[in-house]
Amino acid sequence: MKKICLFLIIFLFMSLHILRAEEIALTLDEAIAIGLRDNRNILLKAEDIKKAKEKIKEAKASLWPSLTFTGGWSRSQEYYYKDISSTTTQFTVKQDLFKGGKIINTIKYNEYGLEVIQALLDKEKLETVLDIEKAFYTLLLSEKLSELNKAIVDNTRQHLDLIQARYANGEASESDVLKMESSLSNVNKVYESSFNQVEASQSLLRNLLFLNNDVQIKTDAELTCQPREVAFDEGFLKAMEKRPEIRQYKAKKSRIKNRLKLSKPITDQIFMPLGIITAVPMPLSEQGAIETIIMF
User: Fold this and answer.
1) Segments forming the whole domain that contains residue 223
2) Nearest 10 degrees: CA dihedral of 9, 12, 16, 19?
3) Which of 138, 163, 261, 284 is the most exposed, having the fewest neighbouring CB atoms within 10 Å of its CB?
4) Average pLDDT in the 241-270 region?
5) Closest to 56 in 3D by CA, of 112, 116, 107, 119
6) What is the pLDDT of residues 108-160, one digit of tens each?
7) Which phi and psi angles does 227 have, rounded to 5°?
8) What's the CA gap between 185 and 189, in Å, rounded?
9) How far apart are CA 170 and CA 107, in angstroms?
10) The pairing of beta strand 215-219 with beta strand 22-26
11) Within 10 Å of residue 32's Cβ, how many Cβ atoms?
12) Cβ-contact 246, 240 below 8 angstroms
């Protein structure tokens, strides 16, 4: 009775594990789309691009006039025959006309910083796509190799059955049977190794796509080999032009130049106050009048 209960528990556990496992078939394009969508590093660099764009907007804000507001409130108690309160407010509008090139260089500095981050994002995307392609084709090759080894195991087992039948009829020697049994053992080991390679390849691709461990990935593709003629020099130069590392280097170089300009002391600075508005309410004990001073 105990053995039957133990068998039922093991059977239920295995059944739940099989039901919980999910198998999906993916093409290469689908795997790349999922990897680019859920990659943490790509999402973080996308947020860095948003911050860099906001820095550019902040730097361009210096081109617009600035508005400053100051206010004050005072109250006198037990000094006059009644308490007196007064409020003072002031608005100042200022427009910078020239600051030694600091505003323009700051804008360019932040724009080159945005180009650097965009190049890093493109680099991360290219590396992610390359890793997914390698993992996908590794899984595809391991699956084909596992299927081939399984067919070899089945063929060897059938050959062993034939040799044993011939040995029973006296048409084959015992050494032939032993050789075939040894061959079957060897191909079984190779098949187990290829099956383990399939599981390892699935785990690698599953991690790159940020999928759960219960998901079993199957490749929906076929292996094809097609020759292609490529001029090495032209292909190399074209690839180097599009590489994000080259754009990152150029943007960093330009950013350093603008940073050197920003580090120089500002000797000339011109700004024009557009207006100052000051409102000073008079004590109510006088006439209740409000004095306004406008300066331009």
Assistant:
1) 24-63+101-258
2) 160
3) 284
4) 68
5) 107
6) 888 888 888 998 898 899 899 999 999 999 999 999 999 999 999 999 999 98
7) -70, 145
8) 6
9) 93
10) parallel
11) 19
12) yes
Nearest to 31 by CA among 225, 213, 202: 202
**Where does the chain have alpha helices with state H?**
2-20, 28-38, 40-60, 102-168, 174-208, 232-242, 244-263
**Residue 129 placed within a domain:** yes
68, containing H or E segment: strand 66-76
CA–CA separation, 163 and 166 (whole Å)? 5
Beta carbons of 211 and 217 less than 8 angstroms apart: yes
| Tens digit of each residue's pLDDT (9 = 90 or more) over 9-59 | 544 544 444 444 578 889 999 999 999 998 999 999 999 999 999 998 888
Question: What sign does the CA torsion over 192, 194, 196, 198 have?
Answer: negative
The angle that helices 102-168 and 174-208 make with each other, rounded to 10 degrees, is 160
> Residue 161 domain-assigned?
yes
Contacts for 83 with CB less than 8 Å, ≥ 6 apart: 75, 76, 77
**Domain-embedded: residue 138:** yes
* Both tokens assigned to 134: 């390698």
Total structural domains within the chain: 1
Q: What is the CATH number of the domain that holds 218?
A: 1.20.1600.10
